[in-house]
Amino acid sequence: MDSTTQIASNGHDPKMTAKELVTDQEVRWCPGCGDYSILKQVQTVIPELGIKRENIVFISGIGCSSRFPYYMETYGMHSIHGRATAIASGLKASRPELSVWIVTGDGDSLSIGGNHFIHILRRNFDVNILLFNNEIYGLTKGQYSPTSPQGQVTKSTPLGSVDHPFNPLALSLGADATFIARTMDRDPKHLQETLRRANSHKGTSMVEIYQNCNVFNDGAFFIYTDKETKKLETLFLETGKPLIYGENNDKGIKLDGFTPTIVSLADGASTNDLWIHDERDHVKASIVTRFFDNVHKENHLPRPFGIFYQEDRYCYEDAMNEQIANVISKKGEGNLDELIAGKEVWVIN
Amino acid sequence: MTKTNEVLDSVTIRFAGDSGDGMQLTGTQFTDTAAIFGNDLSTFPDFPAEIRAPIGTLAGVSGFQIHFGSVEINTPGDFCDVLVVMNAAALKANLRELRDGGIIIANTDGFDPKNLRLANIAPDQNPLENGSLSKYQVFTMDVTKITRAALSNDSGLGTKEIDRSKNMFVLGFIYWMFNRSLDHSVKFLTEKFGKKPDILDANIKLLKAGYNYGETVETFTTRFKVEPAKMASGTYRNIMGNQATAIGLIAASEKSGLPIFYGSYPITPASDILHELSKYKNFGVRTYQAEDEIAAVCSIIGASFGGQLGVTASSGPGIALKTEAMGLGFMLELPMVVIDVQRGGPSTGLPTKTEQSDLLQVYYGRNGEAPLPVIAACSPADCFDVAFQSCKIALEHMTPVVMLSDGFIANGAEPWMFPKATDLDEIKPPFIKEFNAEGKFLPYKRDEKLSRPWAVPGVKDLEHRIGGIEKQHETGNISYDPENHEFMVKLRAEKVERIADYIPEQKIDSGNAKGKMLIVGWGSTYGAIKSACAKARSEGYDVSHAHIRYLRPFPKNLGEILNNFEMVLMPEMNNGQLVRIIRDKYFIPAIPLNKIMGLPFTSVEIYDRIKELLKDEKKANKLEFASNGSGK
Fold first, then answer.
1. What is the pLDDT of residues A215-273, one digit of tens each?
2. Domains in chain A, number
3. What is the DSSP code (8-state) at residue A290?
4. What are the beta bridge partners of residue A128?
5. Is A70 an interface residue toward B (CB < 8 Å)?
6. CA dihedral A315, A321, A322, A325 (to 10 degrees)
7. Within a domain: A102
8. Would residue A157 count as lying in a domain?
9. How far is it, in rounded angstroms, from Cα A324 to Cα A329?
10. pLDDT value at position B460?
11. What is each CA distance from B21 to B26, B57, B70, B160, in whole angstroms?
12. How buried is A275 (Cβ within 10 angstroms: 0-12 exposed, 13-18 middle, 19+ buried)?
């Protein structure tokens, strides 16, 4: 059974530049939108990855995030709300050699697309999910989303949202994702590095990107990026390194049994007692993904960024295609006339 | 003592029993044997929605009807001649199907006080004893007792297993009654139970015991002969609708050179297509059981984007969920096939009963103007051709296509003179392998069919983006331009209309090309209409039959055909669907004949209506919106 298309190979294409990934379409995001930065970092990183441009596919759903494919000079599809994951699953299953990127948002993936989201994570197709989380519905002009904090006043919740929000990373871990990361639009270097790591991972790479919607939810993540607050509120995870943050790196996180506790290194706590990040540790991942405190709570935990969890597990498309290859090697390729005739025929003269 | 042989042109047998009694197996075995013997036949399995309703109740009755003969057989039989019942509930549920003077074969053990109670029959009103069956020929046998006696000594089986095999005894007896060979069933049992010699031996023993019972016991003096039918010369096999659909899809896959990506979600009565296709991995078929109906159709959009033959199948409720994605497929202009195996609706409806009430849904049921091609199969074997043609049209015109089947066709069987692979149409999808024109690649630049080129990821310099937003003509860039939108809506509609240039003209199936009455049908009403017309014509009525396979676009000559008749009658298993489309498009006062009972039409119901309308032509001139289908 041969396909009539060229079989793609992943040979290194040294000539690809960021410029070649720019389309002739005018970018229509609002001035100041976090998406511009994400687009730039993606266009910077992809040429380094050694993938031929014709083998790259971007699939999006609906939302501001999902306009992304129109601005990438690769194969792309702008599909329907919440379904990019389902469409990408069919594409990857049948064309496993392609590099498939899914661009989605907090509404697209965690609201209408929730079901497809958990299933793609469990199936572990080797794709990259870029989830632009701006904690709001931007394209439809300002309704709250499943990640908006409780009490948020929006167009559809003028008295404040009564919804308890999702914790996307804990949800991902619960769905058995094999790669879970968080980064942000305003830290280009961190975002680029996260994209590289996501691409290297064989399996579904779930990357949450905090993205500022300056029109409908401006400032949602400023505490993580503003000079005055970021050191106190942001915790960067690196495997092998202790959990340290704070104004002068003077705070640390220790594990008391299973309870994360904040300790002051300035007051004499030892770095030797601190929690050392290990992205392969599932139990620790289940705790650190739940560093999700409301910033108004006293003595709250900082918000972690980085690779929370990574594991190696077989990918759906490999198992599916291996099964087919095994059957063909045992039975040989099918014969259409035999199939049509079936087991028992009779002749009338 | 002598047994006589009566020769019959055709016979209809209905097997009925509790869901656990193996009536489906008995029926399909008899069918396979009759097919191999050379009878023409048509079958109708009739089972309940529940997996195992309480034993002995009316809800648990499962039936299998087969009409076979030495003459042309088009329907599973309007009434049955022989009713085999394993318990009281089966008799109560099915007696109305038996013709006066017909034969009842009853398992007396199923008519004990417990079974009578479960069937809501008063304990002193056992139908086998109270004379209520006097207009039928009733034969009773204590199947349970006989089978236990036959096996108890040396079978190595427990009572429960013995009782579960009693359908083999019944099958053996019916084989005797109709002078049939046990060979096929012995072969089947040997394959099925090869690794369990105890069970194999017991089943074969019972099969033979049933046969010998007929031979020996004096109550049964008449046997029946139904000779092989004069069918066209060729090589035949027996086939069921869902099976034929699966094989048709694989045939299209082979002819087009594209592997199938089948994304699906289990739903009655379409699940068997998934089961069948999952057995054929050596044809490169990828079967994907998605998390829901929407994921199933979306997965095939992805696969199609990647250059494969994307197919999904479902029934009414699942198609309802898929509509947004079908609209996306239409807007993207990607090839894919969506199969609707219709069942009783609306909502959950009657999952195991047949109906053809999704036509308007697949015709119109998407947001905006999204006319999809629709093709309908008319019999089990026809599913092969229709599945194949649906793929061909989807691939060559770059469009989703809807194939309509229904529960009756899906589970029914008939003999099929099958084609050779070399005789099948070629399928040439419009792949573009390299870009060597000037300027930029235009993903929506069209050919004379108005279909666009298929540029698939992996091919250099053809990078492009497609999406559900309205697009500029040829470039495919997002466009909100008012004139462009109207132009594109009409262009997409015209693309579908031009498919009419590539499909065969409508034929008259039987009767004159011009005349008093034309019966127009679609889908599984084919056999009943054909029979009804033949009977009416034999009595001098001027009635013809046209059966439409291509529902959108219609064949180019359909209007002309409709106008050649004074009256058009349209039997449908719905509340009037194709009749509305025909009236709208061709401005004729087509008359509906509706049956919405979860059962196929009988040819008598249609025949009675033909007579009624042609005898009193004044009645026929009134436009009728409601019409009872029973013909009574």
1. 999 999 999 999 999 999 999 999 999 999 999 999 999 999 999 999 999 888 888 89
2. 1
3. T
4. A101, A205
5. yes
6. -170
7. yes
8. yes
9. 9
10. 92
11. 9, 13, 30, 12
12. middle
**Size of chain B, expressed as the number of residues it contains:** 632
Which pLDDT value is given to residue B626? 44
Kind plus residue range of the DSSP H or E element containing B336: strand B336-342
Contact B302 A346 (CB under 8 A): no
A285-324 in b/e burial notation, b at 16+ Cβ within 10 A?
Answer: bebbbebbeeeeeeeebbbbbbbbbbbeeebbbeebbeeb
Q: What is the ipTM of this complex?
A: 0.95
What count of residues does chain A have? 349
**How far from the centroid of its chain's Cα atoms is residue B184's Cα?**
25
Distance from CA of B49 to the nearest CA of A (A): 27
Q: Measured in whole angstroms, how far is the alpha carbon of residue B73 from the centre of its chain?
A: 16
Alpha-carbon gap, residue B597 to B410, rounded angstroms: 18
List the CATH number of the domain containing A168: 3.40.50.970
Nearest residue to B472 (alpha-carbon basis) of A76, A75, A25? A25
Cα separation, B48 vs B20, whole angstroms: 12
Inter-chain contact A342–B239, Cβ cutoff 8 Å? Answer: yes
- The domain containing residue A31 runs over which residues? 3-225
As a three-state string, the secondary structure of B303-325 is: HHHCCCEEEEEECHHHHHHHHHH
3-state secondary structure (DSSP) of residue A251: strand
Instruction: Write the residue in B238, B261, B418 that is nearest to A90 by C-beta.
Output: B261
Q: Does A4 touch chain B (CB under 8 A)?
A: yes
The CA-atom distances, in angstroms, between B276 and each of B28, B76, B380, B392 are 17, 24, 15, 21
State the Cα–Cα distance between residues A121 and A204, nearest whole angstrom.
6
Listed in sequence order, the residues at least 6 apart from B522 whose beta carbon sits closer than 8 Å to its beta carbon are B356, B359, B376, B378, B404, B547, B548, B549, B551, B572, B578
Query: What residues contact residue B422 under an 8 Å CB cut-off, 6+ apart?
Result: none
With respect to residue A231, please indicate whether it lies within any of the assigned structural domains. no
Q: Is residue A338 part of a domain?
A: no
Which two tokens mark B185?
């069933």
C-alpha dist (Å) from residue B459 to A60, B128, B306, B431: 21, 74, 11, 10
Whether residue A334 and residue B310 make contact (CB cut-off 8 A), yes or no, is no
List, in sequence order, every beta strand (DSSP E) within A90-184: 99-105, 128-133, 179-184
In angstroms, the CA A66 to CA A76 distance is 11
> Does the CA dihedral B234-B239-B245-B251 come out positive or negative?
negative
Task: State if pTM tops 0.95.
Answer: no
pLDDT given for residue A14 in this prediction: 58
A5 contacts on B by Cβ (under 8 Å): 307, 431, 433, 456-459
Please tell me what DSSP assigns to residue A253.
E
Residue ranges in chain B whose pLDDT is less than 70? 1-2, 616-632
Collect all residues of chain A within an 8 Å Cβ-Cβ radius of residue B467. Answer: 69-70, 77-79
Taking an 8 Å cut-off on Cβ atoms, the answer to whether B307 and A5 are in contact is yes
- In order, the DSSP letters of B549-589 are SEEESPPTTHHHHHTTEEEEEEEESSSSSHHHHHHHHH---
User: Which tokens belong to B152?
Assistant: 């108890």
Cβ atoms of B85 and B95 closer than 8 Å? no
